Amino acid sequence: MSKPIPQRETLKKKIFVLDTSVILYDHNAFNNFQEHDVAIPIQVLEELDNMKNGNETRNAEARSFIRLMDKASGEQIMNKWIPLKGSKRGHFKVVMDHKPALLDAEAIFGGGKFDHRILNAALSLKEEFPEKKIVLVSKDICLRLKAKSLELHAEDYETGKVKNVDELYTGKTTLANVSTELLDELKSKGSTSAANLELAPETGNHFYILKSKRKPITAYHDVKGELLVTVKAQKVFNIAPRNEEQSMAVHALLNPAVKLVTIQGKAGTGKTLLAIASALEQRKDFRQIYVTRPIVALSNKDIGFLPGDAKSKIDPYMAPIWDNLRFIKEQYTDDPKAQARIDEFVSTEKIVIAPLAYIRGRTLTKIFFIVDEAQNLTPHEIKTIISRAGEETKIVFTGDIYQIDTPYLDAESNGLSYLIESAKNHPLYAHITLDKGERSELANLANDLL
């Protein structure tokens, strides 16, 4: 006699209900809940169907998830539990539009919103499986609060989040009581063996401020060459670093062995300016320079709602980049030929300034690629950009992880934080956090006191 098959609800302890915001953040999310079950409300599929057309990342995420669901379900009915591939994995299903018997989110919060129907889907599962813990997973804080008010467990999607953003990698360390012999060798020769500093084996490319009784020396640990190299202030396209941190940033930007650079810092620290100036300084080494940023429209409406043609729609969003290029141009007030050369770079598309969505799909071969405001990207968007890098391409991400305009992202879950934490020991990567503002004393007042 064959053994009876145990019922699904007795096998698993939790059912995670995924909101649309989670899918748009990570289309592979439903594979990341280990042995637990995953439920997708039918309203999520409706929302994804409305978002599948377009060239933005969220459109690509919607399409990718729909394809994954289709592949995972095969010939099976999706409103029944379907096993996810892999050992000790859970099951998934699509939850139909049911009204719960006890608490009705639409009756409480109002009808006509997908969010409230998603809440009802979770509430219906809670009634159907009282012995299980039903957890709504959403990047939408307000939706999580509404769920909790209805006695539903709710949590953020944790995959890709940096656990302690206050201890995020800065790329620089100050070392005291360094031997005078090592500093003398660095000063006279410009470099020394990294073994003399007795660094941890896993240490990647990193900047050090070496202190002794004498004047401190700034050095760079070249992990490939196993060297400590002196960092000196270098002018880039007539822009001179104003502090040690900026000198470190320029060193990383000019280093041909470093193919991926991140610069994190508050407003006015010079992130974008140094990146553009360094790119122009190396213009002969690259086929083109791309400077881009993600467009985050006001009130989260698509720029198609704005009046005018495509150029007039996007120009306001790209204005900060043009301001930096104009500032560089102003450094050559006594050299009209240099100013004309900068204008020529733009007219001949040696330097291309455009929104990230306009550049998506291009081949990044021998390109100096700068992505400004990278804190407004998801980890998957960051991965997609880097994966398009061809031979002899350098990619630079700049941003402030505490100044995020994209809904459902925060200092812990944005792509820039994720990249800094994930790539910190890779030999092709260098990072520096800029703390000192150089825009003006008034700007520093705002950053420090308000």
Automatic annotation (TrEMBL):
GO terms for molecular function: ATP binding. Pfam families: PhoH, PIN_4. Residues 14-145 form the PIN domain. Keywords: ATP-binding, Nucleotide-binding. InterPro entries: P-loop_NTPase, PhoH, PhoH2-like, PIN-like_dom_sf, PIN_dom. GO terms for cellular component: cytosol. SUPFAM superfamilies: P-loop containing nucleoside triphosphate hydrolases, PIN domain-like. The keyword Nucleotide-binding applies. It comes from the Bacteria. The keyword ATP-binding applies. In the N-terminal section; belongs to the PINc/VapC protein family. Belongs to the PhoH family. This is PhoH-like ATPase. It comes from Pedobacter caeni. The lineage of its organism: Bacteria, Pseudomonadati, Bacteroidota, Sphingobacteriia, Sphingobacteriales.
